[in-house]
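User: Some background: our group keeps a shared notebook of sequences we're curious about, and every so often someone picks one and asks for a predicted structure to add to the entry. Today it's my turn. The entry only has the sequence so far, pasted here. Could you supply the structure so I can complete it?
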Amino acid sequence: MLDNQTEQKNENLICGRNAVLEALRSGREIDRVLVAHGVSGGSVTAIVAKCAQRGILIKEISPQKLDYYCGNVNHQGIAVFLASQEYSTVEDILQTAKDRNEKPFIIICDEIEDPHNLGAIIRTAEACGVHGVIIPKRRSASLNATVAKAASGALEYVKVAGVTNLANTIDDLKEAGVWVFGADMDGEDYAGTDFDCPCALVIGNEGKGIGALVAKKCDAIVSLPMSGKINSLNASVAAAVLMYEVVRKRK
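Assistant: Of course. Here's the predicted structure to add to the notebook entry:
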């Protein structure tokens, strides 16, 4: 999805068929491809095929919207947003914990859509010594310029892995000995939870919370007590409280 800040127009944006092809050939980390409705054939078809092979998100938008993003540049019906930081792998994150001789501490963002929330989560994760953040490749904010700005430099230090299937990734983490805790208002009080173990915290979507399948995969569901009239916190605030609870329990 394109965030409501219009990806900070022209930042990390490459327009035009030849320029996009060169970006692909160079191995640059590409966030997503924008293709104007009705444009196909020739190099555009080849570009789209290459992107599909690499698992890059392809988004069709109106020619007018693509004109807006590209400004005065002749985009020839196609453009790409470069990621503000290269993605890591889940294996990289687990290796980081091993290299530090620490129990894995991982944050899983289940369809966090607001780039400001994702950036804030990454910023707190860095402060708490989290070994890495996992996000889905689709239906999620990605490592765009807005996320980088909200993270205030933390993207340089925190590994972020983009995965195709969160449920399968959770299975892999559990096989690696990681306990997975989902954050949801119907869970057990977080204060009584033992986080002094290899663990991953799952933070759900701002509106829907954790998906049903992801929730089923969790070893436990934890919640924050709410004494006011509203029944939930901002995703990045809830994530921060839980991250610091893990840090406290591990001291």
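Suggested note for the entry: Confidence is low (pLDDT under 50) at residues 1-9. The beta strands are 13-15, 30-36, 57-61, 78-82, 105-109, 132-136, 160-163, 179-189, 199-203, 220-223.
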